[in-house]
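Q: What would this complex look like in 3D?
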Amino acid sequence: MRSFRRTPGTGDADGRDVRDDGGDLRDVAALAAAIGVVGASFGALAATAGMPLPMVVGMSLIVFAGGSQFLAVAVVAAGGGAVAAVVGGLLLNLRHLPFGLAMAPVVADRPLGRIVGAHVLIDESVAFARARGTGPRARRAFWACGVSFFLVWNLGTVVGALAGAAMPDPATFGVDAAFPAALVALLLPTLRAADARRVGLGAAAVALAATPFLPPGLPVLVGLAGLALAGRAPARTRPGEAS
Amino acid sequence: MTWLAIAVLGAGTYLVRLAGLLLRGRVTVPERLQRLLDLGASALLVALAATAALTQGDGFAGWARPAGVAVAGVAALLKAPFVLVVVLAAATTAGLRLAGVP
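A: Here is my prediction, written as structure tokens for the whole assembly.
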């Protein structure tokens, strides 16, 4: 809790709050638990769709992008063919390109760190790190998230694939609400700035309006149109004063 | 599903992620563009939160999930601990579904 209240989220967290890393780790663990459950539901879904165990686990290890894995398995299960599954999954993951552009300085300074970090650049690790500014604390949060989410996602996949149809439906536990709720909590500090709020509201409106008409992944991308509301850079104010 | 499909999806996803990270190192980014990149990442995350909270496929997700997210959002505004926010979301949604809300 302390860790959240203190985090301005606009780029001036500079790692002074070393003692809050414990709180950060607890928050990482909370999100990791939800990701593990979703990983288990992916494993179960893929196994019951007839994918052999090594392939299910291999997919989680190699792709490590939950939304696109669900989508690809669902497309193939519906008889859509491998090409449609791959194209759909890639469309869904295109948003990671602008994430990479924005997050590069946080992930690592050297190319080697970025080459490793690229594999764990997922929505959750990006949102988590961004809520902790751009300093060393954000970098520690990114790597703690990336590594632990990778582990629990794959562990969950194995458990789910072994349990197969015996896995209860995760919707029963409301796990699908945990991810957007976590995003909301992580985005609140950023949204205290008036320009980020304008852009965010515009992005959400455009993405929601586009959802019935576009294939999965594209509505979020066209949400970038919200940048039209960016306006001019505000004079440097402390977060919270911008409104 | 085939191993080839998994390999292509995996390689493509990785290259998309890597491209952004490495491109940023190749060019010096003026402050104006840096601000737009930051705002763009926020915009994508907000759009992701909104669509994940409200939609399933190309339609409405039903009331249970957005209700859970709304309760969690209020808790987050009241500075509840992150763990509680996540648990509240799942518990509210699960409770509503138990009560028959889709």
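A: To summarize the key features: The first helix of chain A runs from residue 2 to 6. Confidence is low (pLDDT under 50) at residues 1-19 of chain A.
Q: Very helpful, thank you.
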